[in-house]
Amino acid sequence: MKLKHLSTAMILATLPATGVFAAALDRSGQSMSAFLQPGNYFEAGISILDPDVAGKEAGSSTTNRNIGDMADDYFFPSAALKLQLNDKFSFGLLYDQPFGSDAEYSGNNAFVSNPGSDSVLSAGAIDGIVTKKAKEALEAQGLPVNDQTLAIAKGQVLASPQFQKLAGALAVANNYLGTGGTKVEVDTQNLSFVFGFQPNQNFNFYAGPVLQTVKGNVSLRGQAYSLYNGYDANIKETTGVGWLAGAAYQIPEIALKASLTYRSEIDHKTNINEDLSLLNFPGLTSVLAGLDVPASKLQAINSEGKTTITTPQSVNLDFQTGIMANTVAFANVRWVNWKDFSIQPYKFGKVSEAVGGLVGRPNGFNLVEYSDDQWSVNAGVGRKLSDKWAGNVSVGWDSGAGNPVTTLGPTEGYWNVGLGLQYSPTPQTFLAGGVKYFWLGDAKAQTGAQAGSDQYVADFSDNNAIAYGLKLGYKF
């Protein structure tokens, strides 16, 4: 097939934007392609994403207002250095930004605070409290609970001095809610130290430690978040350590290469700086007591403690092979264990445990969680067009991480198509660029208190994104 001298960089570097918009927080795709290049090799790249994610209030929302584009543009760099120390051993440094999020709500909707109309508890939540107290009163009197008796009992609860006092306190508490729009920004960085052993020209076994940093900011605003309207969390940059391991097999004469790589989960223990504006309300304790929140849980609200954030484990399977002269087919399959991922900042969790009974979650709830693992597939064909030019086309699919999904990233997977082009001014250097268009999956968005149920507060559909990538490579 005359593929012996066909650069594998043509396939693995032509389109850098491979994993630029995947499920949940997944960004880079964590490729190992640079380490599997022959000889000594260096590359540096940048990927840029321009998403458009808009929707409407729906589900438990009492209004049906439009929600404008809430997904911000972002970019992230990558770099790699691979050294072939001798015939048997190699070493690599791989830098990427594997996980992240960048979004902000604006306009007039349930995710933007509106001091004139927002309330600490929704009308539905208040009705649930009244209904609960009415049932308790009927049962205490030994009376049957049916539509007629319940309606009378609810009226008595609403007219009672105790409830009137509680309603007045809730009205005052509304003045302590947040201002502005919901937003989130999460950034991670990975530095992988990879040691490889090649017993022969066909096999490559590799492993090594991974240093990872995480930092971020989250602000919850608007009626959708109820009493969390005014919650802020600042995650100071923290470092955790994990590992990777894998194996590759190749037959250079036919441009065949296959690799399987496992990356471990990584724990980060940090003191998150949290603030909830409602905690500044002087009468909060009496209000929560009036809502039957246990005194022991009230005391825990202002306690301090560490939060553990665990980024997920993943597996990448990469394959390419020659199919005709100067032409190869390639594919990547990626699995990420998002189903076991969640974030519950310490104080957020204590508040959720205190008030969770009001929304049917007596054990509390998470800020973010996902219901499914992510699967993604990218496949295509690359061709050497001349001594200096090569190109490829690709298609991709991503399963998403469940639906409904968090309001901080309301899409369910995608389909995409991509084009890439590579120019090699010398046999040792290349410049590659690519573009991908994404059809983002429709999703129902839910708050942390709704996670694990079919409830949701907004519906996002007919959204898209465009990704651009640029990469420089040098073989020496």
TrEMBL record:
One of its GO terms (molecular function) is long-chain fatty acid transporting porin activity. It is found in: Cell outer membrane. InterPro entries: OMPP1/FadL/TodX. Keywords: Cell outer membrane, Membrane, Signal, Transmembrane, Transmembrane beta strand. The lineage of its organism: Bacteria, Pseudomonadati, Pseudomonadota, Gammaproteobacteria, Moraxellales. Belongs to the OmpP1/FadL family. Residues 1-22 form the signal peptide. It comes from the Bacteria. This is Long-chain fatty acid transporter. One of its GO terms (cellular component) is cell outer membrane. It holds the Pfam family Toluene_X. It is a multi-pass membrane protein.
